[in-house]
Amino acid sequence: MFASFVVTLKPTAPAPLGNSTGASLHALLFNLVAQENRALAEQLHADAAVKPFTVSPLRGKIKREGERRIATPARFYSVRYTTLADELFNALSKILLGKFLYRGKVTLDGAEFVVQDVAVDPERSRGWGGLASAEEIWERASTTPDISLRFASPTAFRQRGLNLLFPIPTNVFHSYREKWNAFATPPLDEGLLAWVEQNVAVEAHELESRMTWFGGFQLHGFTGWCRFTAKDKDATRLKQLNALADFAFFCGTGAKTTQGMGQTRRMKAEGRRIEDESGGRKNGSADFASG
Questions:
Q1: DSSP string, 205-225
Q2: Of 58, 100, 156, 196, which sits with the fewest C-beta atoms within 10 Å of its C-beta?
Q3: Strand ranges inside 139-193, DSSP E
């Protein structure tokens, strides 16, 4: 089961935050999972080419006092966790929808926060919560040649030690195919990527560069929306492409999706207008702070 949990938090006192909330929320996920399944938490720590989860940055207005960043008790904040593997889904749902649903306490950067809500319902999470199986994604996938995606937190691709700041189709769909083949069926053959390279192009976009911190260093990524179009109308390839685009909601895009980057969801294009499938905001601005 693929899942997206949106966790609403509120600090009990003014809470100083580090530069990299993505890294802090990544650590918080491990701590939550360890309460239910310590062996699984240790397994998640281990090096693996493809991780079965994503983590968003912290969403919400953060106060600045000089160089300090502070979350205030007067405001609500949220983090989004997605899971790609059943064992992780089971462990995290037991914690978040059991013990920590309403008034559970967690620690973030040494400060205490109270869990106010946990939502997997799209209606209660501004379109960012959800549940789906690989079979459901595959069965629902269309064969449209036009695909629009919104990149809501800084997104980038690492290639030969460089940080690439544009959604080149082969990079985008390679990112999704790698995770799909690790956690879903039917497997998608390498010929798909050759087909994408030959047939899929960026038709339109509104993108901007944004910076995100990772402890002592920073990376730039792009946010906004992009519309891809395929010139070849092969129904099999188009279904595969659309299944991957729908899967992006759970797997994220590009590098460091486990520490805040690459939060993504499908959009729909109506003429010249780009609109969230959930009916959310229509501009290209990010939903998540780059924290």
A1: EEEEEEEEEETTEEEEEEEEE
A2: 100
A3: 146-155, 157-159, 162-164
List % helix, strand, coil for the chain (3-state, nearest 5): 30, 35, 35
**With bands split at pLDDT 50, 70 and 90, how would you rate the model's confidence at 289?**
very low
Domains identified in the chain, total number = 2
141 shares a domain with 9: no
pLDDT tops 50 at residue 281: no
Q: 52-105, pLDDT tens digit by residue?
A: 999 999 999 998 887 788 999 999 999 999 999 999 999 999 999 886 665 689
**How long, in residues, is the chain?**
291
Q: Are residues 122 and 163 in the same domain?
A: no
Alpha-carbon distances, residue 125 vs 61, 77, 149, 205, 250 (angstroms): 17, 12, 18, 26, 14
Q: Which range is least confidently modeled, 147-156, 159-168, 174-183? A: 159-168
Give the pair of three-digit tokens for residue 137: 């994604």
Q: 71 with 64: CB under 8 angstroms? A: no
What is the rounded (10 degree) CA torsion for 24, 30, 33, 36? -120
In angstroms, the CA 259 to CA 248 distance is: 16
Q: What's the CATH code of the domain at 216?
A: 3.30.70.1900
pTM: 0.92
pLDDT at 280: 47
What CATH number does the domain containing 70 carry?
A: 3.30.70.1890
> 117 and 96 in contact (C-beta within 8 Å)?
no
**Stretch 261-270: mean pLDDT:** 87
Which residue blocks in 114-155 are alpha helix, DSSP H? 134-140
Q: Among residues 21, 190, 179, 182, which one has the least CA distance to residue 110?
A: 21
**Percent of the chain beyond pLDDT 70?**
90
Q: Are residues 87 and 142 in the same domain?
A: no
> For residues 264 and 225, what is the distance between their CA atoms, to the nearest angstrom?
9
